[in-house]
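Risk register update: the risk of archive-format incompatibility is retired. Evidence:
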Amino acid sequence: MTIIDTHVHLYDLPDPLAVLRQAADGGVTDVVALGVDLASNIKHLELRGRADGSVGIHLALGLHPGNITSREDTAACLRYIRENIGQAVAIGEAGLDFWYKWVRRDEVKKQEQREAFQGQLDLAAEFALPVVIHARGAWRESLEMTRASGIKKAVFHWYSGPLDVLQEILAAGFLVSVSPALEYSPDSRRTAEFVPLDRLLVETDTPVMVNGPDGTRVSSGPKDVWRTFKALCAIKKIAEPEALQTLNTNARAFFNFPVL
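Archived output:
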């Protein structure tokens, strides 16, 4: 059995090539590597050039709301994405996050996030690319901006927001991804129960922390997507072979994977 990890941050790993080799040995065939700023987008492009091909590395170029520093840096990142758009299968990780302490009561910071998100939505619409959306504390506004931009394909990554917005996300034809948080988070488990299997993607958000064999917290790798998968199957009470086929089909169709 093989599987796809639809959301990783390889730039944040000390030895990403070793982690990818472990993933390949564990049956991971493909990963989607998401950028969060100019430096990470550049690093992912360089890393893909050095990789041995044992795992397909598909790039999403983006600017995370938590990595916005200035309008000048945002503009530089958007220019880089446009210049390298042919290398991307998606735009992201993009979105809004109003839960950050430095953003919560600062309308200027919120507006900077909106401008960066809108710039990425515009690129996605122009080049007919899917968008990977980070929405936290701004779920409805993220959805409204996405719909207003005419985006056809979007996935709300690691969704943990209210059910009424989740219903609207599904009604708009968008997808939702689930992460290793299925092992412990009531909000994530509720999302997994609610969303039909054919509208889900599985991910790790590598290197997000997970529980190690001895109970200590350790960095995840793409191989841990199996943990997300098994937790999802248990929650939805579905046979693993059937679920795996559907989830891999979802991922390939959403990202329109090229032949590498």
